[in-house]
Amino acid sequence: MECPIDGTVLETHPINEIIIEECAQCGGIWFEGGELRKAMEESDPDLSWLDFDLWSDQESFAVDWSSRKCPQCGRNMATISYADTGVMVDYCADGHGVWLDKGEFQTIIEALENEIESMDVSDYVAASLEEAREIFVGGEGFVSEWKDFLTVTRLLQYRVLVENPKVAELLNALQSSSPFK
Question: What are the C-alpha distances in Å from 142 to residues 56, 131, 133, 145, 173?
């Protein structure tokens, strides 16, 4: 496969356990199928419960056609904004994959981590309820949805402790005086 920017032959490299294709010249990365989601989840497991579907909120983005060609099929890719990350991704309309320019993968990770950090207790309560609902009606399967629910409830616990330091102090004192150490 060739880089859609400069035509350099793409080299395979691992991002954690995911094997991606990368351009040695420009540093762009090609993610096939669900590799982008998997790479993001492996880079920060706390992101696993967030929805990464580029097409999930079609009203919030505009699609333009790019002059860049899909490394697999050679057709022009679509350019879309990746949620509120500020990153414009090139996406094969035939579903072969997603192209990210150098540094955009890290920018997406940081934007999603900032989204998680900016949530307050009420946001986490709402997210926990939604994840609980998805255990029964979600499309990812019971085990995956259960893991997402556990992640959100753990983050909710952390947020409660951050926003209520007196509760954290009380729990710390109770744990320190516990006879069951």
Answer: 20, 11, 11, 5, 37
Please give the structure tokens belonging to residue 174.
């109770």
Which residue, among 110, 171, 144, 123, has the nearest Cα to 34 in the 3D structure? 144
CA distances from 90 to 6, 98, 168 (A): 15, 6, 45
What torsion do the CA atoms of 12, 17, 18, 23 make, to the nearest 10 degrees?
-30
pLDDT band of residue 58 (cuts 50, 70, 90) is low
pLDDT confidence bin for 85, thresholds 50/70/90: confident
Neighbours of 71 (CB within 10 A): 22
**pLDDT tens-place string over residues 164-173:** 888 878 877 8
